[in-house]
Amino acid sequence: MNIAEKGMEKLSSVAKTFTPSPIQELSHLAQRCNAINLAEGFPDFPAPPHIKNAAVSAINSDFNQYRLNPVVEIARHVQGICDQLAKLMKEMYSLDVDPLTDIAICCGQTEAFAAAVFAIIDRGDEVVLFDPSFETYEASITIAGGVPVYVALDPPNWTLDADKFMKSISSRTKAIVLNSPHNPTGKVFSRDELEIIAGACCTRDCLAITDEVYEHITFDQEKHISLASLPGMQERTIITSSLSKTFSVTGWRVGWAIAPAFIASAIRNIHVKITDSAPAPFQEAALTALTSPSEYFESLRRDYEFKRDYIVKLLAGIGFQIRFKPQGSFFLFAELPENCLLSDVEYVQELIKQAGVVAVPGCGFFHTNLSLEKSSQVDCGYQKRYIRFAFCKSNATLAAAAQNLGKLLGASGCLMLN
Known about the structure:
Protein name: Aminotransferase class I/classII large domain-containing protein
Keywords: Aminotransferase, Pyridoxal phosphate, Transferase
Domain Aminotransferase class I/classII large: 36-364
Family: Belongs to the class-I pyridoxal-phosphate-dependent aminotransferase family.
Cofactor: pyridoxal 5'-phosphate
CATH class of the largest domain: Alpha Beta
CATH topology of the largest domain: Aspartate Aminotransferase, domain 2
């Protein structure tokens, strides 16, 4: 037994199950090829000046020490963030949130979600998720000892099948996870679908954890509806979100959980044990961000809608099947050309090598058991037919990607990767 194998024996059973994501595995190849990054979901353009100035001012004013949650006496300065979040919840969703007790400030949405899971999930509890799904949800559930139960959304429009959903709920179901607008597909769950989820939560006495980081990024007059705003749901919903996507500051790591007071208190206690506090100067700048005028949010939505339309036209022009146009978020889940024999992973490898553009193979977002589904005569071949492109990039980056992707078309106008 070599040193590495001996070292593996010392890892926990959970740690042994975690492997690099498709994004991580392809990043090295992309770096060697100096590929244009349409894979990772972070903007490559500057954050809004007024928000950056607020952060700089906070640093210059020596806001450099721990910034605890507002229930702690010394943390009164953070209360403004919670006050503003409560105000926004009232304006956007008609929710009455107590800023003193119902909000926990965390290190980004990822930690807020993890702390929420740790606050409510015991070993053996089942948690329902919708597939495809962002990978970090399952990780938190597994670490907590919970059991992820996936319900496949139906392509190409990623609709929720009420029968499949209800059959996934058992006496062991503790919570349902909802991400809308949805990563990776760009789906915005409809009110009818939300009512199905809310109905199940209420009748089966389940909690819900929502990821609403893309709430301000919706297109074509679609409106984000928070699950917590439906009848009977505020008292059983944990909302998680952050500054990252709305304000183009994914590295600032300021997020929050909004929940009934007893759950929010548990999340705060877990947060303090894990990370202690979110970055101090960025918490100060968060108040400036959250009080941005309505024109800012409309401009954000309009700019991303333009980028969405640009990349949809671009990818359709080189043969991708765009049977579902994103309704929100800043991702396009594009289906491989109909006559393409490559898998999603193989196609992305060729994109990097031949066009110098990197995206994410869709298989990394699918978690349903293929053999189980096939035994039920359900075709899951589509799970290797999608690629996620991030269009949260500058117009210059998107134009450069368009130029490179144009190289994939032969003289006949046919895609050369087939």
